[in-house]
């Protein structure tokens, strides 16, 4: 008996300590366009309890890390970027290790995205692959992740073909985002140049992207689909359309990987004006509300979601201190929404009304040069 008890004690002592839960503090990583003032990826800290957002500091120096993605284990961060080889620029995807305690980033490696202008990326839910969309090249790729978080050359690459009705913006395919369904089995690509969401069967184990049946869902001509988001229930999905400033609600058949258009609504309170476009779409963690960013109009549009049908009903707009809202994100607790003001060189934060979904200014503004993307990571104790 003593031998058994001693063995149990030894086992307990040698077992790894369980991961500690976050205490409401989050690192806020910000992707930017680099240039005269911006040097790469920035970092600040959000304390949900106090509602305070700290000043930003440079976390990693890298070229044009406009969009970021966090590994499920919260120990790696990935960014899109551009680097030149010869006369023609090509796209790159960079990998960084991430220390959840200090928020420190360390460059691991960079691999080609296979096309020009990578603009969006995600990490699959098993943490085995990075999937990226190339806007300029009109293509997508999948890059396997090694055990140390670094990237391998792409295991899958798909070149889109075709065009749509706008001769300036839709003269060729322009893959603007790539997302995965809750089951991690299907990838969805909003292609602005084709007015389609293309659908692929995805395998995290083999890193493959295979055309689905059905292969796509068609949107209105000239809509210009840009970004895409699933409802937490997995029953509905939403795409924000850059060119006609609308959001399209769709139902989702997970078994078939099929989307069906339900209804499209405007993101504006009135007619579209010259110089206006949309950028980001985010569903609240509760599934009750959806938010979309209007550039030019300089607002965040707020919608209530009918959880029985997925349809959207306008709630209102918030525009205080917003200037060219590119990406924005909601903290994991669903309490705050942080907007990246690309032309305002700042982050601005709003408190979310948990009964109505409306946004109340917190009057907190953090300076960040040319911010584009906001991502959260729990601060480890």
How would you describe this structure to a colleague?
It is globular and about 45 Å long. A hairpin with a 4-residue loop joins strand 10 (129-134) and strand 11 (139-144). The protein is built from 1 helix and 29 strands. Strands 1, 2, 3, 4 and 29 form a 5-stranded antiparallel β-sheet that branches. It has a domain at 22-29 and 38-59 and 278-381: YVTN repeat-like/Quinoprotein amine dehydrogenase (Methylamine Dehydrogenase, Chain H, 7 Propeller). The model is unreliable at 1-22 and 84-88 (pLDDT under 50). It has one helix at 2-14, and strands spanning 25-32, 40-47, 52-53, 57-61, 68-70, 76-85, 88-98, 105-112, 118-123, 129-134, 139-144, 156-159, 175-180, 186-191, 196-203, 208-218, 225-230, 236-241, 246-253, 258-266, 277-283, 289-295, 299-305, 312-318, 325-330, 336-341, 346-352, 359-367, 371-378.
In the CATH scheme, the class of the domain at 22-29 and 38-59 and 278-381 would be: Mainly Beta
The total strand number stands at: 29
Count of helical stretches? 1
Task: Give the N-terminus to C-terminus distance in angstroms.
Answer: 37 Å
CATH architecture of the domain at 22-29 and 38-59 and 278-381: 7 Propeller
β-strand amount: over 45%
From the alpha-carbon coordinates, what is the Rg to the nearest angstrom? 21 Å
Supply the helix-strand structural class: mainly beta
The largest sheet is:
5 strands, antiparallel
Mean pLDDT: 93
The dominant shape is: globular
For CATH, the homologous superfamily of the domain at 22-29 and 38-59 and 278-381 is named as: YVTN repeat-like/Quinoprotein amine dehydrogenase
Order of helices and strands: HEEEEEEEEEEEEEEEEEEEEEEEEEEEEE
Q: Return the CATH topology of the domain at 22-29 and 38-59 and 278-381.
A: Methylamine Dehydrogenase, Chain H
> What are the low-pLDDT stretches, counting only 5+ consecutive residues below 50?
1-22, 84-88
Helical residue percent? under 10%
């Amino acid at each position: 008996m003593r031998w058994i008890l001693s063995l149990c004690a030894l086992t307990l002592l040698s077992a790894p300590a369980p991961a500690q839960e976050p205490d409401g503090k989050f690192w806020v990583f910000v992707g930017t366009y680099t240039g005269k003032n911006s040097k790469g990826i920035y970092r600040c800290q959000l304390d949900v309890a106090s509602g305070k957002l700290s000043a930003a500091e440079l976390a990693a120096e890298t070229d044009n890390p406009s969009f970021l993605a966090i590994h499920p284990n919260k120990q790696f961060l990935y960014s899109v970027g551009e680097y030149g080889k010869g006369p023609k620029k090509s796209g790159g995807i960079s990998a960084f290790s991430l220390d959840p305690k200090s928020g420190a980033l360390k460059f691991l490696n960079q691999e080609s995205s296979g096309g020009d202008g990578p603009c969006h990326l995600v990490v699959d839910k098993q943490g085995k692959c990075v999937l990226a969309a190339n806007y300029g090249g009109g293509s997508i790729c999948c890059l396997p992740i090694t055990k140390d978080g670094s990237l391998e050359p792409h295991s899958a690459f798909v070149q889109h073909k075709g065009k749509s009705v706008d001769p300036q913006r839709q003269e060729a395919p322009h893959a603007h985002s790539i997302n995965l369904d809750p089951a991690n089995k299907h990838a969805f690509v909003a292609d602005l140049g084709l007015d389609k969401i293309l659908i692929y069967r995805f395998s995290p184990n083999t890193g493959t992207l295979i055309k689905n049946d059905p292969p796509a869902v068609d949107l209105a001509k000239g809509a210009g689909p840009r970004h895409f988001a699933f409802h937490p229930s997995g029953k509905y999905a939403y795409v924000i359309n850059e060119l006609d400033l609308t959001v399209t609600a769709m139902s989702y058949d997970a078994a078939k990987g099929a989307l069906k258009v339900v209804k499209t609504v405007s993101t504006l309170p009135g007619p579209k004006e010259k110089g206006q476009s949309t950028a980001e779409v985010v569903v609240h963690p509760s599934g009750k509300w959806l938010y979309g960013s209007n550039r030019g109009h300089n607002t965040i549009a707020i919608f209530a979601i009918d959880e029985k049908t997925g349809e959207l009903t306008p709630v209102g707009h918030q525009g205080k201190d917003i200037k060219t809202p590119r990406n924005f994100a909601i903290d994991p607790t669903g309490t705050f929404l942080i907007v990246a003001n690309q032309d305002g060189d700042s982050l601005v934060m709003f408190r979310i009304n948990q009964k109505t979904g409306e946004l109340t200014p917190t009057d907190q503004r953090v300076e960040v040069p040319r911010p584009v993307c906001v991502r959260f990571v729990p601060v480890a104790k």
